[in-house]
Amino acid sequence: SKFALALAFAAITASGAASAQTVDNWRNPFGDVWMNGTNELCWRDAFWTPATGIPGCDGVPVAQAPAAKPTPMATKVVFNADTFFDFDKSTLKPEGRQLLQQVAQQAQGINLETIIAVGHTDSIGTEQYNQGLSERRAASVKAYLVSLGIDPNRIYTEGKG
């Protein structure tokens, strides 16, 4: 019984000496480094060197976690390209093509989510006819933007009558 107790004490002492060789700061029974009352300085033993300093003590800086990269913010960008059509027509005029070319060039430099092409008409004609004409005009704008390289799945059309 006395021999077992002495052997256990020797094993505990040997393990304490082994840890003292790797980190030369005094530790409590839970493995925490003993610090002064203001938690600014660590207690060291006689074998301490700067090489055995530990983070948070002895002037060794605590490793900082890398800063999280900010998530990109989505920004709504609106390009207005009012394109006029001849009366009762859905064919783009040359001036309208020019405006849409500018929109397509501007869209190349951004992460494009959607384009909404909205067609309108005047008050002449029936509501049903004007709705169809406005939808054809929006489809004409979409077709031209697709011909300029814009992904057709990114272009939505609406007719406002």
Structure, explained:
The chain is mainly alpha-helical and 161 residues long. It has three helices and two strands; from the N terminus they run H-H-E-H-E. It has a two-stranded parallel sheet with strand order 1-2. Helix 3 (127-147) links the parallel strand 1 (115-119) and strand 2 (155-159). Mean pLDDT is 76; it is low at 1-21.
Layout: helices, strands, pairs:
Elements: H1 2-22, H2 94-108, E1 115-119, H3 127-147, E2 155-159
Parallel strand pairs: 1-2
What CATH calls the topology of the largest domain is: 60s Ribosomal Protein L30, Chain: A
CATH C-level name of the largest domain: Alpha Beta
Query: H/E order of the elements?
Result: HHEHE
- Average pLDDT metric: 76
The helix content, as a percent range, equals 25-40%
Task: Provide the domain count.
Answer: 2
Summarize this entry quickly.
By secondary structure, the chain is mainly α. It folds into two domains: 2-52, no CATH class; 65-161, 60s Ribosomal Protein L30, Chain: A. The protein contains three helices and two strands.
